[in-house]
Amino acid sequence: MNTATPLLLDLDWFLARAEERGAPLDARAAEAVLGLLALGEARRRTGLPEPTEELAEELLHILLPLYVSATEEELPGFVAALVALIDHTHEAGRLNAKRQAKLVARVRELAGGFTQAMTSPRRLTWPRLYGNLLRAAGVDATDPRAVRDWLEAFAARPQAERNAAFGFASSSPNEPLAEAAYAEALCAERSRQARPLLAARLEAVALAEQVRPRPGEGLLVADAPVGKPDDERDDWYEAQAAVLTDRWTAAGLDTLLRGPFVHLAPGGGSAPTPLLALVEAMAGQHLEMYGDAFAPLPPAPLADSPEEQAALLRSAPLPQLLARAAADPQGADGRTRELALASGFLVREQGGALSAGPSAEAWREGGPAELTGLALNLLGVLLAQSAEEEETAEEYEGEHLITLYLLCEQAGMTQSVARMAALNDMWFVPPGHESAPDASVPATGDYELPAPQALSAVLGLPALTESDRTDLIPSAARLVRLMDRLAALGITERTGDALSLTPLGSALLRDTLLVGLEGEAADVFPTREQALAWDAERLVAAAQWWPKRAARQTVGDWLDAQGTDGWTPLFEAISAACPEDEPARRRALLAALDAMVVPGEALYALLADPVLGGWAEHALHARGQAPDPSAVPLSARAVYLVDALEAVRSAASLEHRMTAAANEEEPELFAEVHAVFYKAAAAWPGGGPALLTALTAADPYTSAFLAEQLSRHPDRATAEQARRAWRAFQTSGTTRFPGRKPAKRAGGKRKRR
Question: Once rounded to an integer, what is the mean pLDDT over residues 7-24?
Answer without folding.
Answer: 88
